[in-house]
Write a structure and sequence with these properties.
This protein has about 270 residues and is α/β, with parallel strands linked by helices. It has helices at about 1-65, 85-100, 110-125, 135-145, 175-180, 225-240; strands at about 105-110, 130-135, 150-155, 160-165, 165-170, 185-190, 210-220, 245-255, 255-265. It contains six helices and nine strands, in the order ααβαβαβββαββαββ. It has a seven-stranded mixed beta sheet, sandwiched between helices. A two-stranded antiparallel ribbon has the order 4-5.
Length: about 270
């Protein structure tokens, strides 16, 4: 009788062990399928987001071309492609220049936005434009191919590695000293190079809020990136600490995204 009980217990133990093994194998297979499904969902999500960005970029391209169709001052070829500003940036920049008519403009990063601002400066009186660029050869090439105004100042400021919270980031050398005491009603930020940086394009923080006119507009390109987002957080904190009312928007996006920050009386620019 004891032998039978032992055999029965042993049989039950083996049976239960086999069931546990089978269950574990099923669980492992389910986990594998779940991981596979999650990866497929991620790929599908990335595909949808990418195509949404392209679709929105194309939409802004159409809106931009319609907007400048009968422009009194902008009628030049532009190359709004990879590495340059996109159509969302070009659209809101044009609307600001055409309707708000800023008088003191600061731009970091010389490129297609510089071409647009150049045409604006040449056709409007009493407008000053300061543009910062680190690449001397690019400046010479740009000047050779662009008829710039005498009221535009190009500042060649070398790139250097600045430390912030123990992290190295690209910055313009002597940026703060270069613009000390100056005020601007439009600031566009598309430089220096910020790809893959934890903090990016932070030079403007060295002169804010002293550099701002009572009415001001700040545009930051590539704000979908982490580095620019952290800079935006610090920018907004500075404005709040100095009790400066502002409004912000992220409505202008395509392949890249644009952040806009405006003084209290220019809120409508965040939604046009």
């Amino acid at each position: 009788m004891k032998k039978i009980l032992k055999k029965t217990k042993l049989y039950n133990w083996y049976a239960n062990a086999n069931k546990i093994n089978e269950t574990n194998l099923r669980i492992s297979e389910l986990e594998r399928k779940v991981m596979q499904s999650q990866e497929q969902i991620k790929c599908l999500n990335d595909f949808v987001i990418k195509n949404l960005k392209i679709a929105n970029e194309n939409l802004f391209a159409t809106i931009f071309h319609d907007t400048i169709k009968n422009s009194e001052w902008l009628n030049i070829p532009l190359s709004l492609s990879s590495g340059a500003i996109g159509y969302p940036f070009a659209y809101i920049l044009y609307r600001i220049l055409d309707e708000i008519e800023p008088k003191h403009i600061l731009e970091t990063g010389m490129g297609q936005s510089t071409k647009i601002i150049t045409e604006y400066v040449k056709s409007h009186k009493n407008v000053g434009h300061d543009v910062v660029e680190h690449d001397k050869e690019w400046i010479e090439f740009f000047k050779t191919n662009t008829n710039m105004s005498e009221f535009q100042n190009i500042h060649l400021l070398k790139n250097y590695k600045k430390k912030f919270k123990g992290i190295e980031l690209n910055a313009y050398k002597n940026f703060k000293e270069e613009f000390k005491g100056q005020k601007f009603d439009l600031i566009t930020i598309d430089g220096p190079v910020g790809v893959g940086q934890e903090y990016s394009r932070m030079d403007i923080l060295d002169i804010i809020p002293d550099c701002l006119e009572q009415k001001f507009i700040i545009l930051i390109d590539d704000c979908e990136r982490v580095g620019e987002q952290r800079t935006i957080e610090l920018l907004e904190q500075k404005l709040e600490d100095n009790k400066i009312k502002f409004h912000k928007g992220y409505q202008y996006w395509g392949v890249t995204s644009v952040y806009i920050c405006v003084s209290d009386d220019l809120e409508f620019l965040c939604h046009i």
